[in-house]
Amino acid sequence: MERLRLNYSNLSVNDFISKAQTIVNSMTGNPVFATPNPSLATIQTLIDNLDDANIEVELGNYTQLTARNDFHAVLGDSLAVLGNYVENIANGNRQILESSGFDLAKTPERSGILPAPIAMDAQLTGISGQVQLKWQPVKGAQSYIVEATTGNAADPNAQWVMLGVCTRARFVAGNLTPALFYSFRVCAVNWAGNSAPSEPATSVIG
């Protein structure tokens, strides 16, 4: 099944901005994508923020370098979520996928379903209701799906809730309920689908 390229980290900042703008322009007014998630307005704001910070850095204002990097990371993760929305709508239809402005994923090496991520770790950040999650990168992963449960992680009927999608082997989970015991897990995603979930990492939320 055709999939989208969700990771554009190898592009220069200017090329990344251009690609993100192409995606917004292509999806704006496209009747196939009636309810984009995140909204195109949100993506456009992130593009504008990154563009403004990048212009400052190119003019020599290196105090904006950290902000530029942060905007770049947030936009990258948001595009990955948007790409998953497009894939769900398209259901493998190449024409619909291409109409989104995203590139199609290259699949010269079809390795099948990826192995489950390992070394999942959860650390409190010092901010109430927030946890930093990290794991070892999985070669060939286009993105990762992060999930959580407040139930018994060993129970096969536990209700796992998706927290988000990211393209890097780390994720900040926020808006969690303090004093509750959470378990977290992650799946690696490529053209063939989702891997099995990682072993869970647990934390009592501060």
Task: Please provide a written account of the structure.
- By secondary structure, this protein is α+β, with helices and mostly antiparallel strands.
- The chain folds into two domains: 13-99; 121-204, Sandwich (Immunoglobulin-like), CATH 2.60.40.
- 32% of the residues lie in helices and 20% in strands.
- The protein has four helices and eight strands.
- The chain has helices at 13-27, 40-58, 65-90, 94-99, and strands at residues 121-124, 131-134, 143-149, 161-166, 170-173, 181-190, 193-194, 201-204.
- Strands 3, 4, 6, 7 and 8 form a five-stranded antiparallel beta sheet that branches. Strands 1-2-5 form a three-stranded antiparallel beta sheet, with no helix packed on it.
- Helix 1 (13-27) packs antiparallel against helix 2 and helix 2 packs antiparallel against helix 3.
- The chain is globular, with a radius of gyration of 18 Å.
- The relative contact order is 0.17.
Give the averaged pLDDT, no decimals. 94
Q: Strand content of the residues, in percent?
A: 15-25%
**Helix fraction bin:** 25-40%
Task: Describe the global form.
Answer: globular
Tell me the structural class: alpha+beta
Question: What is the N-to-C succession of helices and strands?
Answer: HHHHEEEEEEEE
Largest sheet: 5 strands, antiparallel
Radius of gyration: 18 Å
Number of strands: 8
Structural domains: how many: 2
**pLDDT < 50 stretches:** none
Query: Terminal Cα separation, in Å?
Result: 42 Å
Count of helical stretches: 4
